[in-house]
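Troubleshooting entry. Yesterday's outputs looked truncated, so today I'm pasting the complete records for two proteins to confirm everything comes through intact. If either block looks cut off, that's the bug. Protein one:
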Amino acid sequence: MFDNLKHSVYTSYSAIIGIGFFLLFYPLLLLFKLLTFRKGLYLLFHSWARLYCFFTGIDLRIQGRVVQEGGVVYCCNHFSSFDNFAVYLLWDKPFTILGIEEIARLPLYGSLFKSMHVYFNRNNAKSKVKAMQQAMQRLENGESVVVAAEGGIKSLSPPEVHQPFEDGAFIMAIRKQVPLVPFVFKSNHVILPEFPLKYLHQRPCEISFLEPIQTVGLGMKDIPTLKEEVYQAMTAALEGVTESRADLSKKSAWNLISEFR
């Protein structure tokens, strides 16, 4: 009972901090969007994310930070909705998230997301192809792309990574012959457990960047091998991470986006 009360109070406090800073920045975010000043948008979102973590006591721990010149494909696991926020902690310059259409429909943030990133309808093959084409164009322009290898929040027992991986990240990296850089969110599923999506917990946000994988000379036939290499690297990096199991008997009204399977 006491733990639930503590988590409820912390969740409410965190929501006030997050929404408060977002609304404080929103007029400037909207101005930068109208001026198509993308660098300003990303800098503000990065600042918002860092301020949120500071005021909520979430310590950011990044291991093996990879700095790449030009566009690369970043490929990550996806265990929690907190990942969608945590990605802004990583970069203060333009990058592209390959995300789902539901995010683009969110109030206020959705319109900003559409101007910054690329989104698709997961039930529409043409929409997926169009989104990948847009993302690859940004790679050509020297902007990195971030893709969740699992294609959504699908693992019901983190840190077990859900398989099979979607092809998108691997196709883009091979077609553009750019490095594929895996990284893992190691604790976000503990900070914000997904099923049910209910309470935030004050834990360090741990993120590990893994060794880049070169794709020069690879073709479409190499996708299965590349997927397995990334899967093994992620699994090794997540070894020893706190386990969590989904409780699908409890439905949460918050869980509007993260449809699994």
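Protein two, checking that the full record survives here as well:
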Amino acid sequence: MRDNSPTKRVIPHYHDRFVRALLSDPEQASALLHDHLPSAIADRLADSLPEVCKDSYIDEALRLSQSDQLFKVQLRSGQPGFVYALVEHKSYPDPGLPLQLAGYQLRIWQDYAQGKAE
């Protein structure tokens, strides 16, 4: 039996669960995207809610330190688009980050080319 007393209860990765919950709720995600994307991008998004796509593109080994979500969005032009939200939990500068992000983008484009990202 698990001990849930305040001194024994540990909530591992609570920040990761919070971010995942935020990104999985279309209304919250919409607010996050409109508030944090550069205005040149946010202004191109239609008022419709983003559609949550595939669960995660993050490598299994890094899932404890990052949260991500791919969204299919409608643009004001009427065309569809994708927004990839990635929240890092790193506590140090990582010179390998650009290559890591490029790998995630490649996976998204591969899924899109194979019809899996829609």
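Both blocks look complete. Sanity check on protein two: DSSP finds four helices and three strands in the chain.
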